[in-house]
Structure formats: C-alpha cells, structure tokens
Amino acid sequence: MRAARFSRFGGPEVLEIVDLPEPHPGPGQVRIAVRAAGVSLSDGKKRKGLMDPELPQSLGYEAAGVVDELGEGVTDVSIGDRVFGLCGDGAAQAELAVLSAYAPIPPSLDFPAAAALPAAIETAMRALDQLGVTSGSTLLINGASGSAGSAAVQFAVARGARVIGTAGAANHDYLRALGAEPVTYGAGLTGRVRALAAKGVDLALDVAGSGILPELIELAGGAERVLTVADFAGAQKYGVTFSRGDSGRALHALADIGELIESGRFEPPAVRTFPLAEIAEAHRVSEQGHGRGKLVLLIG
C-alpha cells in the first residue's frame, strides 16, 4: 500500500510516498480504506526529530474512511461503514490505516470534513473535562480560532459556559458566530478581558502556547484554574496543568460530536485539501501559518 514516510529528519523535502506492508487491526480496532487524513502540527515536529528518535517514521494520527477489516471483538461497526477516528500508530496517512478509537461519520459530513475532526475535538473535550467547565463557568480560551480552539469554544458554549476567546481581529466575527466574545491577543490582553469580565474569569485554557500563562493565571485567579495543551515549558515554570493525550483521552468526543453537528450546535472547521502525493506542499503550507481551518490529505 502507498503511505507517507520519512527516513531522515529535516524539512518537507524529506517526505516520500513509499510502498509498505498492509496493517491489520488488533482486538477492539478496525482497519479502514483511508479516504482522507488530517495534517497536524505534530506531523511537522515528528519530521524535524522533535518527538521520536527512531527512523524511518510514518505519519498521521487522524483519518476517515470505509471499514474493510474488523479486529477481534468489534461488534459496533460493520465492513463497509463510514467511520473516522484516531490512529494510535501514527500511520494514518496511507491507503490503509488501523484506528484504535473510532465512531460513525456524521451523515452530513464528507470524508475530508470528518478527517479534520478527531485530534481537535479530542484535545478540546479533554481540556474542558480536566478544567471542569460547566454551565455558568466563564472560560477564557487563548487561541480560540484554530481547529482545537474553535472546538473548545463550541463545546464550552454547548455546556452553557460563557466563553471569551483571543484571536486576531480578522477572526472576531467567526468567534462571535460560534458563541464567544472575542478579544485581540497581545500586549494589554488583561485589560481587554477585564473590560468584558471585571472580576476576571473562572477558568482559562491555552491552546496557542503564545507565552501568556502569567496573564491567564492572573485573570483566572490562580495556576490551578489554568490548563495548557501547547506550552509544556511554561506549565512547568508557572505550575499550570499541561494536558497531553497519554494523561487520559476524551474519546467520548468522537461519539458525541455527531449529535452536535446534526443539530447545528457544532460547525466543523473549513478544510483545505491536498493529494497524498503533495504531502510536502501541505507541510510547507502548515508551517507558513495557513490561517483558520484544517489541512487534509486526500487518499484513495
């Protein structure tokens, strides 16, 4: 099968499409014929050698496609079903992939839109669960217009929370449409947030990793009320919780998202697609800062 891989660390030019043996699902897993696979920032980190030291490495943690092989004990889906989910092996950017967590694709979504969801919605849901965001909470989200940030906005609003989100001015109308109150990031953020919430906020979530944890701690009233998914060094320095996938995934997000989408309470991110053969270009666009939305590879 065709799959994306790199055999040396470096820039997008090290990426290649190679023939690899077909994977097979273990107990509780499914294999899909991949139709679309998401491109994430972690792909670039892997490619640069900032995550795993082994070589060669495959790529891709999220995908959507059609079930073509069932692992032992799987009874909730059938061969031929459309599903999306997470590839624990990090090898989803291939013609075939094994999903360790999966759910039916919401009826209104195509494969690229579904492939854009898994990592963002799991990250957002996990963060809100760990922060304890509930109805009546006032939540500040730093980096609210990105894929994970916009998912967190919508999940929090669905829970009945008041959401204040940081973003560039060009994305303020977008955040308002999602139900958040936008503020511009950068110098003076604390004052702009207090103009909306004079007593500060109950909780704060950092999705952007832009070095403003001290401001978030001040606004939330303590480091224990702040969580980051993007600033590991800052979390260690300031005593803030750093959330990562190995600390307990919110896999229920995959099953929960369908009802929210079909009822109009969740707007999936915009998608920009590339053929698998153009994966290097997708990485270049990702590193240049492609703005709002999600990059997705088309496969099959």
Topology of helices and strands:
Blueprint: E1 2-6, E2 15-19, E3 30-39, H1 41-47, E4 57-58, E5 62-70, E6 82-86, E7 96-99, E8 101-104, H2 111-115, H3 118-131, E9 138-142, H4 147-158, E10 162-166, H5 172-178, E11 181-183, H6 189-196, E12 203-206, H7 213-220, E13 226-228, H8 232-238, E14 241-242, H9 252-262, E15 271-275, H10 279-288, E16 294-298
Parallel strand pairs: 9-10, 9-12, 10-11, 12-13, 13-14, 15-16
Antiparallel strand pairs: 1-2, 1-4, 3-5, 3-7, 3-16, 5-6, 6-8
Helix pairs in contact: 3-4, 3-9, 6-7
- Major sheet characteristics: 7 strands, mixed
Domain count: 2
Provide mean pLDDT, rounded. Answer: 95
Please tally the β strands and state the result.
Answer: 16
Shape: globular
| CATH level-4 homologous superfamily of the largest domain | Medium-chain alcohol dehydrogenases, catalytic domain
Question: Element order, helices and strands?
Answer: EEEHEEEEEHHEHEHEHEHEHEHEHE
**CATH fold description of the largest domain:** Quinone Oxidoreductase, Chain A, domain 1
Which regions have little confidence, pLDDT < 50, spanning 5+ residues?
none
Compute the separation of the termini in Å: 11 Å
Helix content percent band: 25-40%
Secondary structure category: alpha/beta
